[in-house]
Amino acid sequence: MSVSHEFYALPGSSTPEAPESKPSSQPPKSLPPPLPQSAMRLSPVRAAADSAFAECMIERMAAGDYEGVLMASSALLEHQPNHGDALDCAQIARSELAKVYTARIGSMQRVPRAVMGPEGLQALSLDFAAGLLLSRVDGAATVGEIIASCRLPRLAALRSISELFLRRAIE
Hints:
Elements: H1 37-40, H2 44-63, H3 66-79, H4 84-105, H5 118-124, H6 128-136, H7 143-150, H8 154-166
Helix pairs in contact: 2-3, 2-4, 3-4, 4-8, 6-8, 7-8
């Protein structure tokens, strides 16, 4: 299938041209000015607070509090996007949480089925992610297929579907 474009001249104008073939009379836009050095440095107070916060994040990691680690690393990365410990902790926490959620489910190849009626589901007060995942449970699709089809972030989908198993909405 081919598409052709025709351009028509308006009364009183010159011959039509395709918009992309006309050279721009405007100079190219420049980049914004660089940030001043003072904006690129952390204040000593902020640096000390972030350092103490990073220590707490690492303590959470040692204690196995991966949800806490993920929240703490995300908060730290908002202010310091290249913070090495926060990047490493976030990656480890995501990996460990994925293992925990998958272990709750049993297998990504498992085919879940809904076991709770509408009244029971209303009592659960499901969030959007859980409702979306539950709507995909049809007794034929595997957990992996359901997660792939919902277009939610993988870790969030794993958490929600594992919570549906824990709350006995699906088995």
